[in-house]
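Students often ask why inverse folding is considered easier than folding. One informal answer: many sequences map to the same fold, so there is more than one right answer. In these notes we will look at a single instance of the problem. The structure comes first.
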């Protein structure tokens, strides 16, 4: 197969799982010989991260879904870069780049990353402009089809693959435990996320308080940054957890080492998720996972037998599940082994890249015909 010119667009100014997937895919496909350009908001976090990774990035200010200046800039960029495929990700850029692709006759693919139901209004063409839709979970695929936004044959499910050269069970977390002052033998549960309300951090903190009240020596890490960090740290102080029971680590690049320091990963999301990258990464490292019944979280955990699923917004249920696994090392080990096997068989980075390129070429062949 010939190398492709691929243009990714992303209107989000942030740097969560969605943006990290774009960068992972861009960097990995460039290593395979493809030419990849990411277009996004100037001075956004994804812009800065792309620069650090050496990924070509073009700033395009996208103020609204109908921004004429952004539309004109994308048309010009397409004519210069001459992409074979345009791959859009958020609402604004999907409208703008979707229309630009139609005008320039370049095939467009849209990935829906989140499980919030989009408007099924007949004029919502953000899902009708692309030649193919990709989702990060089967639940999202069903949601789009049942909403009448696209035909079943035009939607593919492709969760983010795990780079097994980074996430594997031989990584050690001893240095991290020492850095955070975690006592020897103390079990550690962690939440790794962009710190915003939908990640359920307040419920994670309440569950930590409930577990602490039982006399457990467990420690809890909150890994990540976000606009809500000050609110969450204040809540932890109110709950009496700032004695080392809960540790806010801030943003970390060393996620494999962070996970190696954990005994258990927690996903406490309350509103939206695809199949979370962090769940699959933890499973690849042999960690059991406790997650909420939101979006694609159960799709990651339950088929693999890699953990437990609890209702969202329920600290008591979350605490009970976490305690059960903290106190049962043998059960945790079984779940960790099952999760690692599941990721190795179904969700590696190489599998994701192979399927992505296959879909690109399938769309190109269909459009050529």
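Output (designed amino acids):
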């Amino acid at each position: 197969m010939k190398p492709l010119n691929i243009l990714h667009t992303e209107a989000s100014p942030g740097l969560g799982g969605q943006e990290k997937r774009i960068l992972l895919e861009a960097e990995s496909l460039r290593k395979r010989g493809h030419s990849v350009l990411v277009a996004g908001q100037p001075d956004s976090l994804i812009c800065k991260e792309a620069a650090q990774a050496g990924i070509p990035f073009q700033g395009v200010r996208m103020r609204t879904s109908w921004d004429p200046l952004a539309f004109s800039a994308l048309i010009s960029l397409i004519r210069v870069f001459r992409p074979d495929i345009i791959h859009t990700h958020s609402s604004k850029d999907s409208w703008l780049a979707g229309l630009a692709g139609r005008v320039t006759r370049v095939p467009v693919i849209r990935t829906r990353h989140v499980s919030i139901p989009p408007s099924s209004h007949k004029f919502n063409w953000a899902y009708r402009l692309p030649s193919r839709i990709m989702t990060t979970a089967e639940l999202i695929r069903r949601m789009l089809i049942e909403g009448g936004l696209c035909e079943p044959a035009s939607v593919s499910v492709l969760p983010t693959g795990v780079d097994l050269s980074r996430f594997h069970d031989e990584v050690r977390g001893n240095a991290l435990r020492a850095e955070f002052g975690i006592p020897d033998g103390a079990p550690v549960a962690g939440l790794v996320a962009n710190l915003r309300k939908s990640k359920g951090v307040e419920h994670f903190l309440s569950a930590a308080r409930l577990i602490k009240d039982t006399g457990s020596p467990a420690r809890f890490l909150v890994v990540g940054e976000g606009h809500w960090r000050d609110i969450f740290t204040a809540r932890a102080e109110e709950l009496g957890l700032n004695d080392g029971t809960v540790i806010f680590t801030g943003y970390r690049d060393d996620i494999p080492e962070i996970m190696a320091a954990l005994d258990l990963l927690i996903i406490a999301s309350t509103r939206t998720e695809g199949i979370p990258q962090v769940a699959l990464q933890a499973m690849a490292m042999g960690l059991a996972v406790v997650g909420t019944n939101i979006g694609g979280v159960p799709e990651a955990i339950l088929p693999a037998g890699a953990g437990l699923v609890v209702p969202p917004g329920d600290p008591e249920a979350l605490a009970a599940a976490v305690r059960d696994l903290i106190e049962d090392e043998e059960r945790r080990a079984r779940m960790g082994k099952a999760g690692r096997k599941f990721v190795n068989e179904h969700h590696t980075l190489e599998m994701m890249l192979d399927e992505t390129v296959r879909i690109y070429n399938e769309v190109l062949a269909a459009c050529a015909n």
